């Protein structure tokens, strides 16, 4: 079923974000584990699952709309070496993803693709309230506790 | 501490404003909206303002003392 | 009117203190949560709910005494900007609550309203416990430094 051909293009843009996030979070979570920061590893590894879930939704919807999911394209990776760099990189990616989501949601509204819109709002809610909010809290904690104590709490 | 919750103005903000030359409740209301909505913070704002002005004066007095010393030296 | 005018006035005064505390603790709790200090959120959220229960006891008592509970009046909220300041402001509020309850109890005793006095005593017990906890936290902050203290409250 086809509603509007631009929706598929937009969904593929979003898919690229999810795939980029999966790559980035995979790298970061393993790096946390390597540094011995198990709590951060667990949290970010779980985030990989979340992003994969989002990608799954997008791919299914693209196929349903008779489009071709673009599994190759990626956005720019923001890999960090230190913990604050990694958190900031993740936050930057989440923010850009959220911004794009809002654009696409408003496009879906315009072309009356309400089911896609509804699905994207669910993803946006995860992005805003779960991922980005958690990352922001961590940066706040690093500021309040100082880096060494923050890291100690993430062992 | 937040002095005025309606407008989100803290004691730090008021002290900074006093350092920058503010000196009355009227200015505080005009520039920051303190005590312009529910009025609950009026008393507290007055106290903070008075304290800030006093501290500023004391600092000023101290600084001018140092200056005199320097002049004589 | 069944109740003594002076007692009713005192009960309403304590009620104002409780209503203020409910709001102050609630906002502080959610500020802690917003910063990721979950343990502090949990503790202070509960304190807010306790205050609400005390307020309820007082409201019920005032109605029983055929008075009118004043839920309109609210004291100045002492909202801090950083965790240590917030705990200190909570302790300050709690202390003024305790003073108000003690005064009210003395008047209840004078007017021989022993049931109101007993209710207030029960509230006072809870308040003393909470202020003790707050003092302990402030002490810990002084001893270990605020950063280490906060680390234990994630």
Give an account of the 3D structure.
Chain A: Pfam families: Ferritin. Chain A: Fe cation 1 binds at residues 18, 51, 54, 128. Chain A: InterPro entries: Bacterioferritin (IPR002024), Ferritin-like (IPR012347), Ferritin-like_diiron (IPR009040), Ferritin-like_SF (IPR009078), Ferritin_DPS_dom (IPR008331). Chain A: Fe cation 2 binds at residues 51, 94, 128, 131. The complex is a heterotrimer of chains A (155), B (73) and C (154). Chain A has helices at residues 5-34, 38-64, 83-110, 114-145, 147-152. By secondary structure, chain A is an all-alpha fold. The longest helix of chain A has 32 residues, at 114-145. The model of chain A has no long low-confidence stretch (mean pLDDT 96). Chain B has a single domain (2-72), classed as Arc Repressor Mutant, subunit A. In chain B, strands 1-2 form a two-stranded antiparallel sheet. In chain B, helix 1 packs across helix 3. The radius of gyration of chain B is 15 Å and the shape is elongated. The model of chain B has no long low-confidence stretch (mean pLDDT 89). Chain C has a single domain (5-151), classed as Ferritin, core subunit, four-helix bundle (Ferritin), CATH 1.20.1260.10. In chain C, 79% of the residues lie in helices and 0% in strands. The longest helix of chain C has 31 residues, at 114-144. The A-C interface holds A 137-138, 140-141, 144-146, 149-150, 152-153 and C 34-36, 83, 147-148, 150-151, 154.
Describe the structure in brief.
The complex is a heterotrimer of chains A (155), B (73) and C (154). Chain B has 73 residues and is mainly alpha-helical. Chain B is built from three helices and two strands, in the order E-E-H-H-H.
């Amino acid at each position: 079923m086809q509603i509007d051909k631009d929706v598929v293009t937009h969904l593929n843009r979003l898919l690229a974000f999810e795939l980029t996030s999966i790559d980035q979070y995979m790298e970061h979570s393993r790096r946390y584990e390597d540094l011995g920061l198990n709590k951060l590893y667990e949290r970010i590894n779980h985030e990989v699952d979340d992003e994969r879930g989002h990608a799954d939704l997008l791919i299914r919807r693209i196929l349903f709309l008779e489009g071709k999911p673009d599994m190759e394209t990626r956005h720019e990776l923001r890999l960090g070496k230190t913990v604050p760099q990694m958190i900031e990189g993740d936050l930057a990616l989440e923010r850009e993803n959220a911004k794009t989501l809002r654009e696409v949601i408003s496009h879906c509204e315009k072309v009356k693709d309400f089911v896609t819109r509804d699905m994207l709002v669910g993803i946006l809610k995860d992005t805003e309230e779960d991922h980005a909010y958690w990352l922001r809290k961590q940066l706040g904690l690093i500021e309040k506790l100082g880096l060494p104590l923050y890291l100690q709490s993430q062992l | 501490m937040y002095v005025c919750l309606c407008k989100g103005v803290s004691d730090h903000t008021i002290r900074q404003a006093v350092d920058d030359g503010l000196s009355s409740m009227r200015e505080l209301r005009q520039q920051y909206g303190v005590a312009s909505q529910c009025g609950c913070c009026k008393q507290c704002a007055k106290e903070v303002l008075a304290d800030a002005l006093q501290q500023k004066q004391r600092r000023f007095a101290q600084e001018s003392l140092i200056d005199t010393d320097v002049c004589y030296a | 009117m069944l109740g003594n005018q002076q007692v009713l006035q005192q009960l309403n005064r304590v009620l104002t203190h409780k209503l203020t505390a409910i709001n102050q603790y609630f906002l502080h709790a959610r500020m802690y949560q917003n910063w990721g200090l979950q343990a502090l959120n949990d503790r202070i959220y509960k304190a807010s709910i306790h205050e609400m229960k005390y307020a309820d006891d007082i409201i019920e008592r005032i109605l029983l005494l055929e008075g009118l509970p004043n839920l309109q009046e609210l004291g100045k909220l002492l909202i801090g900007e950083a965790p240590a300041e917030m705990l200190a402001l909570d302790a300050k509020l709690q202390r003024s609550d305790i003073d108000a309850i003690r005064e009210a109890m003395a008047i209840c005793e004078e007017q021989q309203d022993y049931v109101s006095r007993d209710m207030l005593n029960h509230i006072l017990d809870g308040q003393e416990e909470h202020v003790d906890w707050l003092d302990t936290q402030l002490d810990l902050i002084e001893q270990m430094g605020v950063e280490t203290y906060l680390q234990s409250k994630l």
